[in-house]
Specification:
The protein contains 10 helices and 15 strands. It is of the alpha/beta class. The longest helix is centred in the C-terminal third of the chain and has 19 residues. The chain folds into 2 domains: about 210 residues, Alpha-Beta Complex (DHBP synthase); about 80 residues, no CATH class. It has an 11-stranded mixed β-sheet, with helices on both faces. A 4-stranded parallel β-sheet has the order 12-15-13-14, covered by helices on one side. Bound molecules: threonylcarbamoyladenylate and magnesium ion. The site of magnesium ion (MG) has 4 residues, from loops.
Length: about 325
C-alpha cells in the first residue's frame, strides 16, 4: 500500500469508502466513541489485514459493527435481556458479547475462534451511512497501532497508520471520546468486560442487578485486560495535585494544569478530550518527558477515563 486516501464524509467519499471495503481494503471511519479501522468481517483476508496494519496480537477478538438490530440478530443470538439492552442503548457506545449464530458467516479471525461475538450499532451518522452503503458487517478495532493512544480525529489516524490502510473518512472529532462499554450477555450473569461510553450505573439500573467484572489479566477477554495500553511516549503519573519538576500537568476541575481535561470538572467533556489531550501532552513533554494527571472521580464516565489512564500509566 502506498498512499492512504483522505475522504470527505459526503456521498462521493462514502461511496468510495464502501467500494474499498467491498474490495477487501481497510477504511478508517468515525464513530461517536473513537475512529474504527474497518474491514469486511466476512473476509479472512480483510480481517488479517486489520491485525497486520495495527500490529495487533491475534488472540484479541474484534467488534463487529452493524447498521441496526435486525442486522445484528443475523450474527448473534439475542435473548430477551439482550434485546432490552439493545433497545435502550443502540445505536450508541455499547458493545454486546453474545453467542455467535451458527452460519453467521463471520470470519473466525474476528472472534479468535470463540463461540461468542462482540456486536455494536454505532450512533455516528457517518458510521451509519458507511455501514448502510457497504451493506455487510464491518469488523473494526480502534484505528491506532496496537498499544498506542486511540484516535478521536482523522489526523490522529493518519499520524499512526498512513501508508498502511486504504483510506480514512474524515468525520471531525468524536463526541464521546472513549471506547464503547463492553457488556457480556453470553452467560447467566451479565458481565462488565470494559468500562466505556455507557456508564455501568445505567446498565445496572436497566438490568436491575450489579454487573460482575469479567476477564482477568491472565486470560484477556477485553482490551483493557492487557496491562499497558493507550501508551504515550512519555511516562504517566496519576492522582497528581501539582506538577513535579519537568512534568506536564493535565488538570481536571480545581486542579489547574498546563492542559485540562475539563476546567469545570465535567466528565462528558473530559472523556471527549482525553485521547487528544494525551497526544498534546505527549508532544509538550517530549520523548524523555513525563505527564501527570489530576484525579478524576470514579463515577459515570470517570470509570472509563480512569481505566484508560491506568493503562496509559502501566509499566511497559
Ligand atoms: O468504541 C469502540 O468499541 C471502538 C469503535 C471503533 O467501535 N472499537 C474498539 O474495538 O474499541 P477494539 O478492537 O479496540 O476492542 C474490542 C475488544 C477486544 O479487545 C476484545 O477483548 C473484546 O472487544 N471482544 C471482542 N470480541 C469478544 C468476545 N467474543 N468476548 C469477549 N471480548 C471480546
Ligand atoms: Mg483499541
Amino acid at each position: 500500500m502506498d498512499q492512504t486516501e483522505l475522504l470527505a464524509a459526503d456521498d462521493a467519499g462514502l461511496a468510495r469508502a464502501a467500494a474499498l471495503l467491498a474490495a477487501g481494503g481497510l477504511v478508517a471511519f468515525p464513530t461517536e466513541t473513537v475512529y474504527g479501522l474497518g474491514g469486511d468481517a466476512r473476509s479472512d483476508t480483510a480481517v488479517a489485514r486489520i491485525f497486520e496494519a495495527k500490529g495487533r496480537p491475534r488472540f484479541n477478538p474484534l467488534i463487529v459493527h452493524l447498521p441496526d438490530l435486525a442486522a445484528a440478530e443475523r450474527i448473534a443470538v439475542f435473548d430477551h435481556r439482550a434485546r432490552t439492552v439493545a433497545a435502550a442503548f443502540w445505536p450508541g457506545p455499547l458493545t454486546l458479547v453474545l453467542p455467535l449464530r451458527p452460519g453467521a458467516g463471520v470470519s473466525p479471525l474476528v472472534t479468535a475462534g470463540l463461540d461468542t461475538v462482540a456486536l455494536r450499532v454505532p450512533a455516528h451518522p457517518v458510521a451509519r451511512a458507511l455501514l448502510t452503503a457497504f451493506g455487510g458487517p464491518v469488523a473494526a478495532p480502534s484505528a491506532n497501532p496496537s498499544g498506542k493512544v486511540s484516535p478521536t480525529r482523522a489526523a490522529h489516524v493518519m499520524a499512526g497508520l498512513t501508508g498502511r490502510i486504504a483510506a480514512v473518512v474524515d468525520g471531525g472529532a468524536c463526541a464521546v471520546g472513549v471506547e464503547s462499554t463492553i457488556l457480556g450477555l453470553d452467560g447467566a450473569e451479565p458481565r462488565m468486560l470494559r468500562p466505556g461510553g455507557v456508564p455501568a450505573e445505567a446498565l445496572e439500573a436497566l438490568l436491575g442487578q450489579p454487573l460482575a467484572i469479567g476477564g482477568s489479566a491472565e486470560k484477556p477477554s477485553a482490551p483493557g485486560q492487557l496491562a499497558s495500553h493507550y501508551a504515550p511516549g512519555a511516562a504517566v503519573r496519576l492522582e497528581a495535585r501539582a506538577a513535579e519538576t519537568g512534568e506536564i500537568l493535565v488538570g481536571f476541575g480545581p486542579v489547574l494544569g498546563d492542559l485540562t481535561l475539563s476546567s469545570e470538572g465535567n466528565l462528558v467533556e473530559a472523556a471527549a478530550n482525553l485521547f487528544h489531550i494525551l497526544r498534546e501532552a505527549d508532544l509538550l513533554a517530549g520523548p524523555e518527558g513525563r505527564i501527570a494527571f489530576a484525579p478524576v472521580p470514579e463515577t459515570g464516565l470517570g470509570r472509563a477515563i480512569n481505566d484508560r489512564l491506568r493503562r496509559a500509566a502501566a509499566p511497559r
